[in-house]
């Protein structure tokens, strides 16, 4: 669907190089305009802080983003780990 209101991004995660124990992952982000990029983040980060990181790499301010992972809209006050993002 077209997106003229609010930004939408879908994320998939893979273990960061040298990971293990630290909870760091590389997250591949695909924006609603089909641009793709990766960011490195720890699983104990909140969705809100992750949105701030994503905002640095795209034109969509954090407060206008809607992040989706495995079909679920992520809530700002939850951690990434709470969505089962660990392998």
Summarize the structure.
This protein has one helix and five strands; from the N terminus they run E-E-E-H-E-E. By secondary structure, the protein is mainly β.
Based on DSSP secondary structure assignment, what is the total number of beta strands?
5
Question: SSE string, helix = H, strand = E?
Answer: EEEHEE
Helix content: 10-25%
- Uncertain spans, ≥5 residues at pLDDT below 50? 1-5, 14-21
Task: Measure the end-to-end span.
Answer: 31 Å
Largest sheet: 5 strands, mixed
Strand content: 35-45%
Number of helices: 1
Secondary structural class? mainly beta
Tell me, what's the shape?
A: globular
- Write out the strand line-up for the largest beta sheet, numbering strands in chain order: 3-2-1-4-5
**Total of domains:** 1
Question: Overall mean pLDDT score?
Answer: 80
Radius of gyration: 12 Å
Pfam family, one: ubiquitin
Organism: Escallonia herrerae
Protein name: Ubiquitin-like domain-containing protein
GO cellular component, one term: cytosol
